[in-house]
């Protein structure tokens, strides 16, 4: 499996991917999932993939030289929307070539792509492309896309990232999101590829591969976990002061073969009622 996240901000774009693939607990490998298409001064495009590795690699190889139905390639597309459409056509081309044979072996045609960048003369743009070759674009209401094991790293992004977030803060948030995923899912693993693109740079200026020796990421892993624990411990525990309440759990009837005990169920109190009582 994998985890990739891409963010579109007023200041530019942030891309982060892991590099683990696995087809079972004893078939774990490392494959780069972030690829850059760069013509400095004209365009920078980043592609991150999740899903079947052979399909992802076929699409990556094809799209580099692929010419779409409009006669453009991603190297000559006039804007990022056309480049995304060409990427979608490449996905459908690989589907037509591979899907039937894969299905005969019980293998689903499964691929997800985050594709973003900038073409000279327009703003940064970010897309998510599906297995059918269709795609959606990120806007201010939804500043990021995730593919792969997305659920563990989603809460921190939802709470922190807005279009106005700086690139450094977004990169930090992406790394915390990845750390949450690494901690909860064994199918995601180091090393990581992190690319931060500043608006109108039209060249890759900030890229790093993060492994287990990266001091900044190790600091994030230890600090974030400790800070969460500190905040958690600072929140007061529920107060179970007795107060009559009509709410009762659903109790199953005792079977005839069981003799009823003599204990009387204690009155229950909702957490909301407890909090209200404490404020009085």
| Poorly predicted residue ranges | none
Strand order within the widest sheet? Answer: 10-1-2-11-12
Per DSSP, what share of the residues sits in E-state strands of 2 or more residues?
Answer: 15-25%
CATH top-level class: Alpha Beta
What does this structure look like?
- The strands form three sheets. A five-stranded antiparallel β-sheet has the order 10-1-2-11-12, covered by helices on one side. A five-stranded antiparallel β-sheet has the order 5-6-7-8-9, with helices on one face.
- It has a single domain (3-230), classed as Glutamine Phosphoribosylpyrophosphate, subunit 1, domain 1.
- The protein has 280 residues and is of the alpha+beta class.
- The chain contains six helices and twelve strands.
- The protein starts with a strand and ends with a helix.
- Strand 8 (125-129) and strand 9 form a beta hairpin.
What keywords describe this structure?
12 strands, alpha+beta, 5-stranded antiparallel β-sheet, globular, 6 helices, Glutamine Phosphoribosylpyrophosphate, subunit 1, domain 1, 280 residues
How is the topology of this model organized?
Layout: E1 3-9, E2 12-17, E3 20-22, E4 28-30, E5 34-39, E6 43-51, H1 53-65, H2 80-104, E7 111-119, E8 125-129, E9 135-137, E10 144-148, H3 154-160, H4 167-184, E11 192-198, E12 206-210, H5 215-234, H6 271-279
Antiparallel strand pairs: 1-2, 1-10, 2-11, 3-4, 5-6, 6-7, 7-8, 8-9, 11-12
Helix pairs in contact: 1-2, 3-4, 4-5
């Amino acid at each position: 499996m994998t985890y990739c996240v891409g963010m579109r901000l007023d200041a530019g774009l942030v891309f982060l991917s892991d590099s683990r693939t696995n087809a079972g607990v004893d078939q774990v490998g490392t494959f780069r999932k972030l690829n850059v298409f760069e013509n400095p001064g004209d365009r920078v495009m980043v592609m991150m993939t999740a899903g079947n590795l052979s399909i992802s690699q076929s699409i990556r190889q094809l799209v580099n030289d692929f010419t779409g139905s409009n006669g453009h390639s991603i190297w000559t597309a006039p804007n990022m929307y056309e480049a995304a459409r060409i990427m979608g056509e490449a996905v459908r081309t690989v589907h037509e070539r591979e899907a039937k044979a894969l299905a005969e072996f019980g293998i689903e045609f499964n691929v997800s792509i985050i594709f973003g960048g900038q073409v000279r003369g327009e703003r940064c743009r970010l897309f998510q492309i599906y297995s059918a070759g269709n795609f959606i674009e990120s806007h201010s209401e939804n500043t990021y896309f995730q593919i792969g094991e997305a659920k563990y790293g989603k809460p921190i992004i939802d709470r922190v990232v807005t279009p106005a977030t700086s690139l450094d803060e977004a990169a930090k948030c992406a790394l915390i999101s990845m750390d949450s995923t690494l901690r909860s899912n064994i199918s995601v693993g180091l090393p990581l590829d992190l690319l931060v693109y500043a608006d109108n740079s039209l060249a890759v200026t900030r890229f790093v591969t993060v492994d287990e020796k990266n001091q900044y990421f190790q600091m994030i892993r230890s600090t974030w976990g400790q800070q969460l624990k500190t905040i958690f411990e600072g929140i007061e525990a529920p107060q179970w002061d007795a107060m009559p309440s009509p709410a009762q759990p659903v109790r199953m009837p005792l079977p005839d073969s069981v003799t009823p005990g003599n204990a009387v169920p204690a009155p229950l109190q909702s957490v909301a009622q407890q909090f209200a009582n404490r404020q009085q």
